[in-house]
Amino acid sequence: MGGKTYKGLMIRETAENQFARAIEELSTDQLPAGDVLVKVLFSSLNYKDMLSAGGNRGVTKKYPHTPGIDAAGIVEESGSPDFKAGDEVIVTSYDLGMNTSGGLGQYIRVPSAWVVRKPASLSFRESMIFGTAGFTAALSILRLVEFGMDPADEILVTGASGGVGSIAVSILSHAGYSVTALNSLQDESAFLKKIGARQVIEPADLVDTSGRPMLKERWTKCVDTLGGDVLSSAVRSIRGYGAITCCGNVISPELKLTVFPFILRGVTLYGIDSQNCPMPRRQKTWDMIASQWKFPWLATLSSEIPLGGVTGVMDEIKAGRHRGRTVVNLWE
Ligand SMILES: NC(=O)c1ccc[n+]([C@@H]2O[C@H](COP(=O)([O-])OP(=O)(O)OC[C@H]3O[C@@H](n4cnc5c(N)ncnc54)[C@H](OP(=O)(O)O)[C@@H]3O)[C@@H](O)[C@H]2O)c1
Fold first, then answer.
1. Which residue's alpha carbon is nearest to atom 8 within ligand 1?
2. How many other CB atoms sit within 10 Å of the CB of residue 231?
3. Quick one: signal sequence residues (predicted)?
4. Are residue 247 and residue 173 in the same domain, yes or no?
5. Are residues 92 and 190 in the same domain?
6. Dist. CA 186 → ligand 1 center (Å)
7. Tens of pLDDT, residues 108-128
8. Residue 1: what pLDDT?
């Protein structure tokens, strides 16, 4: 005993499949085993956090639970030779916030294998503006860079006004590429142009449900976040020897395709998984985020709330009304 008391969002099952959310006084004694105790300064809000807070057993099996798949803060205690008290770190994904008490509490205790050194040129707050969404955008772009980029590339980004998409548009446009942003169902074209999209197209300009195995070649590369008919149409619209990344299923996990874009156009389709991304690749991606991929309008993509504001924003996420990135200041 003798742990520190701290504040955290706690989700409790009050009756079968009924869940209540409250900010509670907690103790680090109750945190799970792990060799690094981190004082969390900032977190951010993601769709998965809303699911966890709502009692979704696909995300979180056991309650009571503190959600928060993203955390940035300072190592308070370490049993690992890799970290010492005072180190500035980022922890995202793995099991954080799913079945391990997450970043919507002022402390987390995690295995050192999950901990990334925060690059000095990225503030705690900035790292959480990126968060898992921005990290996923950066992982998608890293795949395309490894595939081979050309200054003349024309790149389609889908779900472009969302968390992953807006950061992908921002990184790619800041790097000088010609980006076409797929508009969402509501018109977000003014925002998409502001973050550097050269063109904005409507879903109806892309989506083809005719079953044709290939469509007119339009883009050399694509970062897709939506899946379903959007991904199917994008794969069929990629130019010969182009590449496309797939990270999400906002529209659908189904993917109706023939093999023809792959065997007649040499198109490459990459899967993106941020959750179990190996540590060397994870650290490399954060280092890229903190250097070449840090764009000047980063702060304008986010709003900041205290821990007490989390449940209101989660309701907005659930209703599909949430825009941009929300960072949570745990000590405000
Ligand atoms: N693979 C990984 O490691 C990983 C990591 C993070 C996220 N993800 C996944 O990536 C996806 C995107 O995440 P996110 O955080 O960016 O989500 P988000 O912030 O909710 O963004 C989704 C975007 O898609 C738009 N959209 C929804 N339905 C659409 C439609 N029918 N046509 C065109 N646009 C549409 C939304 O606009 P409106 O709301 O205005 O319609 C919004 O701009 C999710 O599936 C998420 O689970 C995967």
1. 248
2. 27
3. none
4. yes
5. no
6. 13
7. 999 999 999 999 999 999 999
8. 56
